[in-house]
Design goal:
The complex is a heterodimer. Chain A contains nine helices and ten strands. Chain A is an alpha/beta fold. Chain A has a six-stranded mixed beta sheet, sandwiched between helices. In chain A, strand 7, helix 6 and strand 8 form a beta-alpha-beta unit. In chain A, helix 3 crosses helix 4 and helix 3 packs parallel to helix 5. The model of chain A has no long low-confidence stretch (mean pLDDT 95). By secondary structure, chain B is mainly α. In chain B, 76% of the residues lie in helices and 0% in strands. Chain B is built from 13 helices and no strands. The longest helix of chain B is centred in the C-terminal third of the chain and has 31 residues. Chain B is flat and about 70 Å long. The termini of chain B are close together. The N terminus of chain B is likely disordered. The chains are: A alpha/beta, B mainly alpha. The interface between A and B is medium-sized, with 38 and 26 residues.
Chain lengths: 243, 276
């Protein structure tokens, strides 16, 4: 059963940039999909079209029985079921770590302060930094900030998580701690779509790897198959450059 | 990002005091300006209160202080209300609100303050008064002046508000929305608390500029301190005495206001050590 599906999705930025050129993509419940490709290939745009941070110019996106591209859809409700983690963390700097994790729980899920704080504690423990609940974001390292951002999304108990280059803004020594948290989520059976340049993570965690170029899905498949014997010339060319 | 502190690469701070004095001697760091400014104020104050001809001018001008203060306070209150509405209009997703706000702001910025005050007092107010069931004749010149300053500064404050909101990174809105918060909810809980801090210093500047620009209302014959000074010069033929006193009065008022606003700013950003 697919939880999210995109069909015939095109995205134009203004009238000059054709960022997505017909994306058809289904993700099954419990599946881990990793999207790779050169910069400017539209990887992040695909992700952002999944939760309507970018509205597709044409095509449809359905998630959990809702057609997100319909005008009248309650997009706020859909987003509570679909966590997103950003490259630049985007923690709220004026709030403590605990308040960051509690805000949407209280405003959207309507949980009491105690419930929300309880859940914040649980999720921060899940990402390995329960002791930071009263710290401010800028007192944390990049890796810790990103783990808080993951906890913030998990506290909404989403059905699916989107990761937009979650380790690209991190210093090398902090990448592993974030990837470990993500691997842990994989073992728990979380449905995930991950845009990343971490080929090690893709190989270890992905059920399916998608290679994108110039706004199209060029090739997809089992990670070992795709990495070891890519069929398409552009995929081969990409691996030659990065591996 | 990260926990890195800003490092200060000022040589004078890593050297022992005796060597530091060679490179950066105390007389170079000393705030001479404050001493000189203080001396000027004390001198003017001495004339104002202890020299008879100056003191006569002071006693004539003094009732105007209340007018200056009251007019400035009302005008600032209204300009904040107008500025908030127009500032939010400027960043609104509604094109009608956005364009109306832009029109207002560009109009205000396109006309010098003094002609604009006349225009508001003698064109806008008489036109608008009947809409609120008021008779133009019954509106005092003070309220015309307040309306003038409020509309002029409302335009400037709208730009300050817009700048404050737009200075908050776009990612903050996306993070809020991706958690399922509505646009309004994200604005209230995420964007505005961060914008307020960015907005306080320029708002304080506008408040002070408005106190100073209240002197323009003398040209509407409102009896604030500048107008009373002009009247006193006309009867006493003592421009020197009068304008020393007037200048003294303004600088004391402006310095007092900036001190209060500075305190307020510090109080608003208390307990937020961790936030930027």
């Amino acid at each position: 059963m697919s939880i999210i599906s995109m069909s015939g999705v095109h995205k134009w930025f203004s009238t000059t940039v054709h960022a997505l050129r017909g994306i058809d993509l289904e993700v099954a419940t419990g599946e881990v999909v990793v999207i790779i490709g050169p910069s400017g290939s539209g990887k992040s745009t695909v992700l952002r079209c999944m939760n309507m941070l970018e509205r597709p110019t044409t095509g449809t996106v359905t998630f959990d029985g809702m057609t997100l591209t319909d005008k009248g859809v309650d997009i706020d409700h859909a987003r509570t079921e679909m966590g997103m983690v950003f490259q630049s963390f985007n923690l709220f700097p004026h709030l403590t770590v605990g308040q960051n994790v509690m805000l949407a729980q209280r405003k959207v899920r309507g949980r009491s302060k105690d419930e929300a704080r309880n859940m914040a504690g649980q999720q921060l423990a899940r990402v390995g930094i329960p002791e930071k609940i009263d710290a401010y974001p800028r007192q944390l390292s990049g890796g810790q900030q990103q783990r808080v951002a993951i906890a913030r999304s998990l506290a909404m108990e989403p059905k699916m998580m989107l990761f937009d280059e979650p380790t690209s803004a991190l210093d090398p020594e902090m990448i592993k701690e974030v990837l470990d948290v993500m691997l842990h989520l994989v073992t728990e059976g979380m449905t995930m779509v991950v845009v990343t340049h971490e080929m090690g993570f893709a190989r270890a965690a992905a059920d399916r790897v998608i290679f994108m170029d110039e706004g199209m899905i060029v090739e997809q498949g089992d990670p070992d198959e795709l990495f070891d014997s890519p069929r398409n010339d552009r995929t081969k060319d990409f691996f030659d450059k990065i591996l | 990002m990260g926990a890195t502190q800003h490092e200060v690469w000022n040589i004078s701070e890593i050297l022992p005091p005796e060597e530091r004095d060679d490179l950066d001697p105390w007389w170079d760091r000393f705030p001479w300006w404050a001493v000189m400014l203080g001396a000027v104020i004390v001198l003017f104050g001495y004339y104002t209160f202890f020299v008879e001809s100056y003191n006569n001018a002071w006693r004539f001008i003094k009732p105007g202080i209340k007018v200056t203060v009251v007019v400035t306070l009302w005008a600032f209150l209204f300009s904040m209300i107008i500025g908030l509405i127009a500032g939010f209009g400027r960043v609104s997703r509604n094109p009608l609100l956005r364009n109306l706000s832009r029109t207002y702001v560009e109009f205000i910025r396109g006309v010098p303050t003094l002609p604009l005050l006349f225009f508001i007092a003698f064109v806008i107010v008489p036109t608008v008064a009947p809409w609120f069931g008021l008779t133009n004749k019954n509106i005092s010149k003070e309220w015309r002046g307040i309306a003038g300053l409020a509309l002029v500064y409302g335009g400037y404050i709208a730009e300050v508000i817009r700048g404050g909101i737009q200075s908050v990174e776009h990612g903050q809105m996306e993070a809020g929305r991706s958690l399922g918060l509505s646009y309004g909810s994200t604005m209230r809980s995420v964007i505005l608390p961060q914008a307020i801090r960015n907005v306080l210093p320029p708002l304080a500047n506008d408040f002070i500029a408005m106190l100073k620009d209240s002197s323009l209302l003398s040209l509407l014959a409102i009896n604030e301190i500048t107008q009373l000074s002009k009247l006193y010069v006309n009867v006493s033929f003592q421009p020197r005495e009068t304008y020393v006193v007037l200048t003294f009065t303004y600088i004391v008022m402006v310095l007092a206001l900036s001190l209060v606003l500075h305190r307020f700013e510090r109080w608003m950003s208390r307990d937020r050590a961790g936030a930027r």
